[in-house]
Design brief:
Layout lengths: L2 E5 L2 E4 L4 E8 L8 E6 L5 E7 L6 E3 L7 E6 L4 E6 L8 E7 L2 E2 L3 E6 L1
Parallel strand pairs: 2-11
Antiparallel strand pairs: 1-3, 3-8, 4-5, 4-9, 5-6, 7-8, 9-10, 9-11
Length: 112
C-alpha cells in the first residue's frame, strides 16, 4: 500500500521561500515518477512539477518554471519541492502524487 505524507507548508511573505517534503511509503519508490500538484481556493487542481524515478528528468508547470525546483532523495523515500520567489497566486494546498495515490496535502499561504 502506498502512502504519501506532505509537510513544510506555512505562511510566507511574497518573495520568500519554502521547501515542501513528501515522504512516500510502499514498494519501488526509486523507479516511480512522483509529482506535485496544487489547488487554490475555488480552483481546479494544477500540475506543479514531476520528477522521474532516478531524478534525471523533471517537468514543470508554466506558472512555476524558473522559481520552483523538484528533487528527490531515494535513500529517504522523499521528494522535495523548493519554492523560491513566492507570489500570492502560489497560495494553495500542495499535494504529492504517485499514480492514483495522493497525500493529504500541505497548505501554503503567501501574503502580499
Amino acid at each position: 500500500q502506498v502512502q504519501l505524507v506532505e509537510s513544510g507548508g506555512g505562511l510566507v511573505q511574497a518573495g520568500g521561500s519554502l521547501r515542501l517534503s513528501c515522504v512516500v511509503s510502499g514498494p519501488s519508490f526509486s523507479s516511480r515518477f512522483i509529482a506535485w500538484f496544487r489547488q487554490g481556493s475555488g480552483k481546479g487542481r494544477e500540475h506543479v512539477a514531476t520528477i522521474s524515478g532516478d531524478g534525471t528528468t523533471t517537468y514543470y508547470g508554466s506558472s512555476v518554471r524558473g522559481r520552483f525546483t523538484i528533487s528527490r532523495d531515494n535513500t529517504k523515500n522523499t521528494v522535495y519541492l523548493q519554492m523560491n520567489s513566492l507570489k500570492p497566486e502560489d497560495t494553495a494546498v500542495y499535494y504529492c502524487n504517485r499514480n492514483d495515490n495522493w497525500g493529504q496535502g500541505t497548505r501554503v499561504t503567501v501574503s502580499s
